[in-house]
Structure formats: structure tokens, C-alpha cells
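Lecture 7 notes. Example A: sequence first, then its C-alpha cells.
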Amino acid sequence: MGQHYLHITNKPKTAQELSDSILGGDVIAWNDPLWQGPCLGIPLEELSKTRAAHLATGDKGKAALNHQFAMRNKALRDFRYYDEVILWFDHDLEDQLQLIQILNWFNQQDAFNTNLTMINIGHFPGFFKFYGLEDLDRYQLEKIFPSRMDVSVNQLDIASMAWAVFTNAEPTEYSHFLRLNSSCMPFLKDAMTRLLQEFPRRSNGLSLTEYYILREFTCVERKIRSLWETYLRRESRPFLDFNGFVQLLRGLVEAPNPVLAVIRPPTKRKMLFNEKPQFSEDCKLGITQTGLAVWSGRVDWLRIRPTTVWIGGVNISANPQWRKADAERRVHKVAI
């Protein structure tokens, strides 16, 4: 009789490839961009409801996401029915945050006989730039399956420490964590360092991702696809997918005080008076006067953006004094 496996990974595409493979077993797609929105140090079921309320659009979307998370969590709670649980994650920020969440959860469980293993990779032969497990088909996933390793007590403890730092209401422990030896989790330190860079810059309130975007518009207009390709080159380990990138741009365009604007496209149809060009994946964008003021530091973006910003357990909008200096690996309070 063969082994009864439970595979846990990030994205639905990888989950589908695993389901289609010869490995067998059940598959969970964790599918939660933890780097955006509130992540509090509360039980998984309660946190899942908080996450669904933040991520979903409308009551139907919230109900669907609550159901998705509830089914995912139930499968996780039933892990003792399996001979082995395999965690499939890669090197980017989103995957590493999900990995520490799941490992922290296992670290809180009573003793169990189920074997807990992990595949945690940052490259694959033949890829000049490996973006992550979504790059791989089921045959390539089958090829790396034998390389899985047992999860150690040290890995569980490091993950729990990282999760506590991430979910803390104050970002005061990042610098301490980054000084620890976390080599048993080879991509975690870089991921936490990159997360720090999403805290608002002291000079203008932009996250590093927003900074990357605005710097491309100081002299020229850009199409979204071209901007996306530039973003991929700038990030050593991109954690945004294209849809997430488009949603971020939409927020910069549709804010009450937008920093970007859709450039009126050439069209044979005469546009109505005061008709605004529509935002779409194929449109061209340019920087606004507000955007130039933010870029130069004359206006603080965090002060004028309409949406509430969270990084882990920190409500940035309610505590705008938490700022990241460019050359430092810590966040501290500044007078603003």
C-alpha cells in the first residue's frame, strides 16, 4: 500500500500540476498574499476571516473566500490522517511568509506521527532566472520530489520566531531577528529584509515597490506591460504576480489624489466632454503633479492615500510614524 500524502503549496497553478502528477495524494493551495493586509498573531481560523474580509470584493467574494480558507484549514487540521505532509515553497517573499505561518502552526500542535517534509527551492536547472514553483510543470515537480527534507525542530523554532516578528503590532524586532542565525531557512532572511523595504520611506511615504514604479515615470510615459517587465528585472525575487501588480497600479491611478493617470489613448471615437480614459491592462500611464510632489518628497504619500495600509501586524495608516530609512535594516519612529 502506497504512502498517503498531503501536499501544501502557494499558488493554484502549482497545486493543479501536483494534482496532475503521478505523486498522488491530496493538495492544498494556501493562496494568501500575506505581505499585504492585516496579519495578526491570532488563531488560524480567526486570522483567515480577517484575511478574507481584507482581500475579498463584496459580500459574495467574502463568502467565497471564507469558504475557500475554511476548506483549506480543515484539510490542514486533518493532517494526522496522512503518512506525510510535504510543504512546497520557493524563495520569494510571499512563499516564505506562508511557509513560516504553516510551520508555526505545526510547531503549536501536540506530538504527531505524520512525517513533515519540505521542498524549499531558489533555482531549477535550465532556468536563467527562476521566478518560483509556478515556472515548473508536473514532470519537473516530480523530478524534485525525492529531494524533500524532513523539517527540523530548529526550522520550526526559527519559523515561529519569524512569525512572531511579522505579526507583532510594532515592527521593533526585525533587526534582532535579522541578526540571528537562520541558515536552516536559507531564503527567510532575504525575504524579511525585503519585507522591511515595504515599510514607508522616511522621505515620501512610498514603499519600495511604489518607489520602483514612480521612478519609471519621472521623464516618460509607460505602458503597463513594459512597466511589469522592468519591475521583474529590478526585483531579484519578484513576489508580485501580474494581476497583483495591475491592482497596485490601479490603486495609484484611482486614488482621490492619484500619483499616476491614464494617458488619453489614440482613438477614432470622439471622447465625450470630461470623459476620462479607462484604466486597463493595455493602457499607458503617466505621472501626475501629485506624483511628482510625492517623488520629490514635498508630499507624503502615506498622508494622502485613501486605503488602510498594513504590514503584518502593523497598521501603518494608524501609525504613520513607523518609517524605513533607505540604508538601514530596521524600522523606527520618526517625527512627521
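Example B, a different protein, same format:
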Amino acid sequence: MLKDIALNTLPGLEDLPDEVTIPGYAEDHPWIPNQDQNYVFRKDDVRVVLGHLSTPSPEGLLLTGPRGCGKSSVVYQLHAWLRRPLVAVSGYKQAEFEDLLGTKEIVDGDTLTMDGPLVQALGTPYCTFLFDEIDRAAPGVSVALNSLLDGYDLVHVLDSGRRIPPAEGFRFMSTANTNGMGDLSGDYNTAHVLDTAFIDRNWVHSVWYPTPDEEFRILRGAVDPDIADDPIHRSIRLANDVRYLYTGRDNEASASGQALGVSGSIETTMSTRSLVMLWRVMMLFPNVDQPIIHALKLAVTNKCTPEGAEAIHRLAEAHFGDG
């Protein structure tokens, strides 16, 4: 059973009118993700994902963007708050299309076909199949999805060619750190070039990090209420400087960030996930020397080269002083 769910009940979308609704499950379903009570929806991303959920056409939706910017989480949390089932898998080098279809197992002497994640999702009304990190799987895996994204039945080659029509409301979504053209930054060296025939069958939406106001709301919900607003804002400015200087958008960094001249040394970004981790560490170790640097090391810079770590530490000192 379905019921209409008002979008203004979702955090970040409170100003939408009551009549803006979308169908969701009225009852529990084991594939509905857990809600993140601190999550804040961004209208630009929600508009695209909801538009794709609402369209009757069969093409997929590919969400691209740097790590930790919220590609997967917007899909998970929309399905959680709208009470829609979601089946998700992650791409990897050895993945094969048959892994999505199922396996053969021997039960009481009989060989049975056990349906895989794609087959299960395809047969469930208003279910979405999410292929996370699709560019980590070999291009042949995504190409095998082309006929499904053209609106044709899925042919289950492991089960005597059984044809499986998509259930009502079924949607296919995927995420990738690249836009399908391969790793152009050096950050994602396991990413493959996606076949253009697959890309042509998808909407493609680029996701970026939250705005400072959106990110503050996320962090304010995750950080101890006794911590003042000012250091949270400072951490967001630090993260944005790292992001801008890393991606070559130096003119968008703060004046203090630009003045340090460290953009050529920064080799990583800082995701919202990293910021939340940073604050969790600082709350756990509030009395160490230089708590911001200590937390940065555990959350971000111990994963960098010494030169890259020092560049980020200098940015942190510019925003926080020597604390």
C-alpha cells in the first residue's frame, strides 16, 4: 500500500507547500534505509532525484562528484524519509553482471537459482536499484544494463532466460567519482572509463558539497550543543579552502587561504564526512595540545603526504590560530 508523503516533512525542505507530495510505502519494508536525523536535504539535488523517481521513462540517473559530497547519501536518505525500498551494491574490479542476477546453489540435491540484488529490486514496486561506484566495475557490467535502461525486460541468463519486467515505479540509479570519462585527477585510479552507450541512457547530475549554511546545520546537529557556533563555522571555512585550493578554484578560497600559496601542495579534499569525523575526534580529545591539528591528523592529514599534511595544517592555523 502506498500513501502520499509531503516533502515539507523532510529536513531542509520545510518551506515547500503542503501539496508537493510523492508516493511512499504506508507500511514497513525491510529494504527501507534507516533515517539520519541530522541529514539536511539540498533542493538542487532533491529536485533531480525526485524528478527521476517520478518520471515514467526507463533511463537511469548517474550522480557524479568528488568523494564525500553526498551522492549516495541523498539517494539513501530520500528513500529513508519517503519510505521507499532501496537495494544498493558497490562496483569493484572483479564484479560481473551475473553477480547482479543471482547465483546457482545446491539445495537438497537440487540446483536452484537464487535471485540476486538487481532481480529482487526489479520485481519490487517503487524500489530503486543503486549501483554505487559504478565506474569501479568493468565497463561490460554497465553495458549489460543498456536494454533495461531502454525499457525492455531483463533476461535472467542464469535462470533459463526468464524474462523479468520492471515492477511499477522501479528506478535505476548509480554514482561515480568521475563523469564516466575516467580518472582525470589522479585521485580515483581504480575508476574505469564508462561506455558512452551506457552514459547516453542516463541523466547525469553533478553533486558538490553543501553550502556553508547547509553544512553548518549538519554539523550543528552532530556536535555537542555546548560547543559554540564560531568554531564550527571556522571548520567549514577551512574545509572549503581545502576544497577550492585542491580543485584549482583558488579565487574562491578565503583571502587568508590564498595568501598562504599552498594550493599546489594540497592533494586531497575535505568532505562533510571528514568534518563530522573531525568534530567527533575533537569532542573525544578536548584537552590535547592543538586539538584541531590532532583531530585533523586522525581524520584527514595522516592520509596525505607530509607536504600535503603541512599545507592543510597551515590553513587550519590561519583559521583557528595555533589551537
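Note on Example B: The longest helix spans residues 229-246. The chain has a mean pLDDT of 91.
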